Amino acid sequence: MQKRTMIMLGLVLALTVLLVGATSVFAQSGDCTDCHNDTTVITGKKTATDESMHGMGESYVRGTRNSCVGCHSGGGFSDMVAAGLAPNELETGDPDPTRQDCRACHQVHVTYTAADWALETTDPVAFYAFEGVTYDGGKGNLCASCHQPRRGIAEVDADGNIEVTSTHWGPHHGGQGAMLLGIAGAGDVEGAPGAHATMVADTCVTCHLGEGADHTFEPAMASCTGCHADAESFDINGVQTEVQAMLDELGEKLIAAGLLDEEGHPAVMVMPADQANALWNWIFIAHEDGSLGVHNPAYTKALLEASLAVFP
Ligand code: HEC
Ligand code: HEC
Ligand code: HEC
Ligand code: HEC
Ligand code: HEC
Ligand code: HEC
Questions:
Q1: What pTM does this model have?
Q2: Residue 239 lies in a domain
Q3: What is the structure's pLDDT at 24?
């Protein structure tokens, strides 16, 4: 009798130890509380994301169209990555498009552990508008999946002209990946990947999120000073000022020639190829790239010099 009770008690004790052990292991890691806990691991990033264009831009509504869904709907992007397709290969839009939210970039609610902070993709990106060109910039590949151009400029026709087909003509917003590689500009200008494509590990992510993974996606000075020790602004050696001045001059010349309106929209018409090239380059640098030369100083300046030379 006594012996049996002892065994029973021993069993109960062992079970209790096991259960308590198991639940405490569970509560520490490997489950919902990895992320849903009293830290700001989610809310900290959410506050910043909500203030970024990813979190408040209005272009996500374009995600209802098949030709836009891969980049403009967060959910559409995740589906595209899972299917291994490019943005121009999608056949249906997303009836419920989302912004570029946590789920677009991270694998949220896949394993239901902290491992789900893994990025949706970091695979090199074959630019679909440029045969044979691949963006291979570490974690920045995530960004370049969407921040890639949708088209290059058309071939020159038999009469030496190029047709500007609509007021939305150009490489499309998001040409940053191409600018880093030194492609997608128009005319006879040699481009090459600059130091910021080849020397900055993780490219976009290093400059635009930095050490603390800042989710405003705005570049931080701290990501420059590792290499540009004395830099006090992004306008290193006055490059941004210089590029802005060249853009202003080119813009005025394009407006004077009737190729660009005051709002920055191109004239829809057939024009000599060299003028179309200059117009394209202005749109690419002023509207689409947005870094005022930082992404690829040498290529940006070469494109602007060649474009200015069209209007003596
Ligand atoms: C990798 C971190 C992570 C883990 C682990 C995780 N979640 Fe989440 N969860 C998130 C994020 C990020 C959101 C979206 C937050 C936002 O947008 O406000 C979210 C949102 C939610 C929401 C709100 C509704 C929704 O779907 O957006 C619920 C409910 C939820 N999670 C439940 C769970 C449960 C239950 C588990 C475990 C079985 C779990 N989560 C594990 C990160 C995580
Ligand atoms: C799923 C596609 C997608 C991915 C992935 C993506 N972006 Fe974006 N990004 C967009 C879209 C679309 C917008 C414009 C949103 C709007 O205005 O509605 C945008 C806007 C931005 C802006 C603001 C531009 C402005 O005009 O103010 C920055 C900066 C930016 N992205 C950087 C990044 C970086 C850095 C990454 C990688 C960490 C990244 N993006 C990943 C689609 C994407
Ligand atoms: C390859 C990815 C990609 C595809 C496909 C794409 N976009 Fe975009 N789009 C972007 C990115 C990235 C941005 C943000 C760029 C930035 O702000 O620098 C953007 C920005 C925009 C904006 C906001 C521009 C502004 O200044 O407010 C509009 C509008 C837009 N796209 C419309 C469309 C439409 C319409 C389609 C489909 C016909 C489309 N896009 C297809 C990547 C894409
Ligand atoms: C446009 C893409 C993008 C969006 C949107 C985005 N993130 Fe991130 N996030 C990143 C990148 C890139 C990193 C850096 C990853 C790295 O260095 O491995 C990161 C890092 C993080 C980290 C640190 C992860 C770690 O391993 O320590 C957390 C936490 C995080 N993000 C949460 C969120 C939450 C929550 C949201 C939504 C509110 C969100 N992110 C939205 C791209 C994004
Ligand atoms: C060497 C650092 C660096 C790298 C690498 C880099 N950027 Fe930038 N980016 C900048 C700086 C600096 C600016 C200009 C910011 C300013 O003048 O306020 C900028 C501007 C931009 C803008 C325009 C923001 C706006 O407000 O209009 C977008 C969008 C952008 N970058 C996206 C990207 C993407 C996507 C990649 C990778 C394909 C990338 N960047 C790589 C530093 C970098
Ligand atoms: C990994 C090192 C590295 C980082 C990080 C880096 N750069 Fe650079 N940058 C270089 C190198 C190397 C050059 C010179 C080579 C070249 O012009 O291609 C350069 C050139 C430049 C130039 C052209 C200067 C001139 O006189 O022509 C500018 C502008 C610039 N960087 C801005 C930035 C900004 C802004 C950041 C941070 C957002 C940054 N860089 C981050 C390495 C870096």
A1: 0.94
A2: yes
A3: 42
